[in-house]
Amino acid sequence: MHRIQRWATIALVALFLAGCAGTDPDGAAERSVEELYADARSSLSSGNYSQAVERFENLVARYPFGDHAVQSQLMIIYAHYLAGQHESAIAAAERFQRMHPRNEHVAYALYMSGVARQAQGPGGLGDLFNVDPNLRDPEPKRRAFADFRDLTEQYPDSEYIDDATERMEQIRTALAEHELHVGRFYLERGAYIATANRARTIIARYPGTPAVGEAMGMLAEAYRNLGLDPLDEDVERERRERHEVPAPEFGGR
Q: Cβ of 9: how many Cβ atoms within 10 Å?
């Protein structure tokens, strides 16, 4: 009886070990952190992003502390982004910020979070039918702008500042165009108060963007249709002044 129990125990242990081996296809338990990292980087370089993510995650699980673990968490963000998995990239970036709030590489996590949000499209049928970018939900871009703003405020010396600043201007222009598109929609349907509100939003919130000129014309037209002629004249005058080009100066008279 005891012999049967002993063999049963040995069999259970053997099954357990076999199961463990089956969940470790790369033999991570027997390899150094440097080898695991090199393999994960190789997968990334070859464009096998899903395998790269899996290998970086295995490394972090096997060696959760140290520089390789931190670097692997950053590479997971990057691999998800390259794969077009923007939601996963954002989640990985936010996770890194929670786990390492004082780490210098939070700047990169913030930057990549903004880049991934900015890249988010309409998805699904929006991609299939080539939806006008101005019709897309502007919220991801607003959140991307917030990420870039946090980066510039918290890490002003970061190497990502120049690109983040340029992206912020791109986002401002895109958001202004979105507001302009909505304003046109209201104007075409005779909703002049809503049109005026959208136009004022563009002028106040997105100065310096190409949309401002059309927004001022839109505002003037809305005022005319509302019977607010004096305001209409003020808007037209301000629009002319904004686009006025100074005459050249010549010596003498």
A: 10
Predicted confidence (pLDDT) per residue in 60-73, tens digit:
999 999 999 999 99
- Core vs surface per residue 18-35: b (16+ CB within 10 A) or e: eeeeeeeebebeebebee
Q: How many CB atoms are located within 10 Å of the residue 251 CB?
A: 4
Question: CB–CB of 173/186 below 8 Å?
Answer: no
Q: What is the pLDDT of residue 137?
A: 76
Task: Show Cβ contacts of residue 224 under 8 Å, excluding neighbours closer than 6 positions.
Answer: 232
Please determine, for residue 16, whether its predicted confidence score (pLDDT) is greater than 80.
no
pLDDT digits (tens, 9 = 90+) for 128-186: 444 455 556 789 999 999 999 999 999 999 999 999 999 999 999 999 999 999 999 99
